[in-house]
């Protein structure tokens, strides 16, 4: 019997279907290729039928003789309200503009080679020559740290920074700064010997420290180098750097330390935080950065209770600290108060709009705010933070740097950015003959804006940027913002000054050659547009 077959039977008996209750739109389809194709075709036919009905209804509607004039007036008002609509691509006006896709791509490749084929500077030529013959170098002598850093970077790029090269880089008598961008190839014995011999060491900055900075290196620095007066200590990726060693360093150099930065040092904990609490109180510390640290909830409570440590703090970075909550951060921000100038709390997933309230209440003087990856932020919270004249709250901060990359895709809106830019005080703005805005500004404007992944931001936000930050904006990231168009970006580039040097547009498939090959600075190699098209793995896509 077909009614009792495996196709229609259920665990509770025979499934009886009523043909009158059948709804083809609610019928569940198998996810096979044929079913998917059939659904797409059905949806296309439905959309076509609805469109035809709308056109028929519109044609039967009564028309007034002045409808065309009214439509024209509405368009003019819209252009006045949105000046980006008046932007025209130079690609269409160019007489020699390529027409085929191949010709357009070929021209873009030729333009991209202009910057790469430029003659290197004399400084870079000298650095390359030194690195080419570095096996014959015994010492660099009394050179500036910028020269030493450039040589070390080139050595790292060529995978030549080993123990012998490191010894040649270090100058015991005149070296105040030891900054190594990658210490992976340096053994701990060489690092310990260098730290013991460098007299007058003030800045110790080691990135990817790995195994080179451990107990032996710390002992050499503390016990054998009595002339060192560290004011900046920055260690990254040192997996042999223990909690006790960090506490000893802070205790030894507490009188001179002003900047402390630890990243991905997994052994730091109670002793380090206790030393920070005991020896760095009273407004000594100006910068504190803790990134990718595995602190427990009790250890974060200890950090939050160290209020005197943050009395004069100017730059604070708490990035990727699991367990950092709004309440704990609020205590720290309250202790920092008006002195805080830069705050980075990115990629802390337990933070929410309550943190925005704390920033507005306790830190009105902050100029740089980084909230990348804080997923619990909402549009309402951001609007409240930047809305002026709220009773019981100080004025919103006037930011120079704002980074909201990879937050909730609906958190950043045109209204949020309007409020951010509205806090910029503008005394005068005039248009120069070149089309960029000039004039004196009281409070300046945004210099860096990152809103990657914001699905609700439109060209209106770019128009607001032009009004307030045309002469200050240097970097902007609008990657994966689907509502940004050629006209909005073209208008921004045409009105912004030459200080705008970086623009990231990854994932903006809606942008076309009208912008990439037709904006006003197409031949200006100082403007780098990253993400215009895909490149080989490991290479950036500059346009």
Descriptive report:
This protein is of the alpha/beta class. The protein is 38% helix and 10% strand. The protein has helices at residues 33-60, 67-81, 90-93, 101-116, 122-132, 145-157, 163-169, 188-197, 215-224, 243-252, 270-279, 297-304, 326-336, 353-362, 379-386, 414-422, 459-469, 486-495, 513-516, and strands at residues 9-10, 13-14, 177-180, 203-206, 232-236, 259-263, 287-291, 315-319, 342-344, 368-370, 401-403, 430-431, 437-438, 448-450, 475-477, 502-504, 528-530. A 13-stranded parallel beta sheet has the order 3-4-5-6-7-8-9-10-11-14-15-16-17. It has a two-stranded antiparallel sheet with strand order 1-2. Strands 12-13 form a two-stranded antiparallel sheet. α10 packs parallel to α11, α16 runs parallel beside α17 (459-469) and α17 (459-469) packs parallel to α18. The protein is globular. Mean pLDDT is 84; it is low at 1-22 and 426-443.
Topology:
Elements: E1 9-10, E2 13-14, H1 33-60, H2 67-81, H3 90-93, H4 101-116, H5 122-132, H6 145-157, H7 163-169, E3 177-180, H8 188-197, E4 203-206, H9 215-224, E5 232-236, H10 243-252, E6 259-263, H11 270-279, E7 287-291, H12 297-304, E8 315-319, H13 326-336, E9 342-344, H14 353-362, E10 368-370, H15 379-386, E11 401-403, H16 414-422, E12 430-431, E13 437-438, E14 448-450, H17 459-469, E15 475-477, H18 486-495, E16 502-504, H19 513-516, E17 528-530
Parallel strand pairs: 3-4, 4-5, 5-6, 6-7, 7-8, 8-9, 9-10, 10-11, 11-14, 14-15, 15-16, 16-17
Antiparallel strand pairs: 1-2, 12-13
Helix pairs in contact: 5-6, 8-9, 9-10, 10-11, 12-13, 13-14, 14-15, 15-16, 16-17, 17-18
């Amino acid at each position: 019997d077909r009614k009792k077959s495996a196709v229609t039977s259920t665990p509770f008996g025979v499934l009886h279907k009523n043909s009158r209750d059948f709804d083809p739109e609610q019928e569940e389809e198998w996810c096979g290729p044929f079913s998917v194709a059939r659904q797409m075709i059905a949806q296309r036919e439905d959309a076509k039928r609805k469109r035809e009905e709308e056109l028929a209804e519109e044609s039967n509607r009564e028309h007034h003789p002045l409808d065309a004039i009214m439509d024209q007036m509405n368009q003019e008002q819209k252009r006045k309200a949105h000046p980006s609509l008046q932007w025209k691509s130079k690609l269409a006006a160019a007489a020699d503009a390529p027409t085929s896709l191949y010709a357009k791509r070929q021209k873009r490749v030729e333009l991209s080679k202009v910057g790469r084929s430029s003659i290197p500077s004399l400084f870079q030529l000298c650095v390359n020559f030194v690195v080419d013959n570095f096996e014959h170098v015994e010492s660099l002598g009394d050179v500036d740290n910028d020269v030493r850093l450039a040589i070390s970077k080139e050595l790292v790029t060529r995978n030549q920074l080993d123990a012998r090269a490191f010894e040649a880089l270090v100058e015991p008598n005149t070296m105040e700064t030891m900054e190594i961008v990658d210490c992976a190839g340096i053994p701990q014995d060489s690092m310990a010997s260098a730290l013991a011999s460098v007299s007058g060491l003030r800045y110790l900055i080691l990135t990817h420290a790995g195994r080179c900075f451990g107990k032996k290196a710390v002992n050499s620095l503390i016990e054998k180098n009595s002339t060192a007066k560290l004011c900046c200590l920055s260690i990254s990726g040192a997996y042999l750097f223990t909690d006790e060693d960090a506490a000893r360093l802070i205790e030894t150099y507490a009188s001179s330390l002003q900047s402390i930065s630890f990243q991905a040092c997994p052994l730091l904990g109670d002793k380090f935080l206790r030393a920070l609490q005991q020896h760095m109180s009273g407004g000594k510390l100006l910068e504190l950065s803790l990134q990718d640290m595995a602190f427990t909830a009790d250890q974060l409570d200890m950090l939050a209770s160290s209020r005197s440590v943050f009395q004069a703090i100017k730059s604070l970075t708490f990035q990727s600290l699991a367990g950092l909550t709004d309440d704990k951060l609020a205590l720290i921000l309250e202790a920092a108060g008006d002195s805080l100038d830069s705050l980075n709390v990115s990629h802390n997933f337990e933070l929410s709009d309550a943190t925005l309230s704390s920033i507005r209440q306790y830190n009105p003087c902050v100029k740089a705010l980084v909230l990348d990856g804080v997923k619990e932020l909402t549009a309402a919270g951001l609007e409240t933070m930047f809305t002026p004249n709220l009773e019981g709250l100080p004025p919103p901060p006037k930011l120079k740097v704002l980074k909201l990359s990879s937050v909730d895709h609906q958190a950043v809106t045109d209204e949020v950015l309007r409020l951010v830019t509205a806090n910029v005080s503008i005394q005068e703005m005039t248009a120069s003959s070149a089309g960029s805005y000039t004039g004196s500004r009281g409070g300046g404007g945004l210099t860096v804006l990152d809103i990657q992944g914001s699905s609700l931001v439109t060209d209106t936000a770019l128009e607001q940027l032009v009004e307030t930050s045309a002469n200050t904006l240097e970097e902007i990231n609008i990657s994966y913002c689907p509502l940004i168009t050629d006209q909005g970006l073209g208008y921004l580039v045409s009105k912004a000054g030459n200080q705008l040097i970086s623009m990231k547009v990854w994932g903006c498939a809606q942008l076309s050659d009208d912008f990439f090959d037709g904006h006003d600075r197409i031949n200006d190699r100082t403007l780098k547009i990253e993400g215009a098209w895909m490149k080989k793995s490991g290479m950036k896509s500059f346009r």
